[in-house]
Amino acid sequence: xxxxxxxxxxxxxxxxxxxxxxxxxxxxxxxxxxxxxxxxxxxxxxxxxxxxxxxxxxxxxxxxxxxxxxxxxxxxxxxxxxxxxxxxxxxxxxxxxxxxxxxxxxxxxxxxxxxxxxxxxxxxxxxxxxxxxxxxxxxxxxxxxxxxxxxxxxxxxxxxxxxxxxxxxx
Length: 170
Fold this sequence. Notes:
Elements: E1 5-12, E2 17-25, E3 30-41, E4 44-53, E5 58-70, E6 76-88, E7 92-103, E8 108-119, E9 122-136, E10 139-152, E11 156-168
Antiparallel strand pairs: 1-2, 2-3, 3-4, 4-5, 5-6, 6-7, 7-8, 8-9, 9-10, 10-11
């Protein structure tokens, strides 16, 4: 069993500028992230970000587009697309992450994710389902299940993950 603890902070400024920073503690590594972006409209944002790991020495640079489509007064469709470059100590390649969430109302959303990375020595494919529930606009919980397949020269394996998180907005 592996456990991960993550702390993320996000600030949105009056001019639409967004800044995010994060720290994750894994059983095998620690990682940190930073991203800067801007809102293109009330419902669309673009970001440039960096994710670095301390022990495995993996650096990822990515561009992310996040948007919300209002379907009617209550339901919404949220989607995120990220593409980036991965620079590992002995390997490099690219990554693509996708997320789609349907919000039945302002409180409950259910969605899916698909992530892919293609490196010289290892390829990964991750598929998942998630749900989130907003108790208030500033407090919500999120749960997920996902499976990841690893394919490489010395590694053909898979792993399944289950997670839950609580989020507070200020």
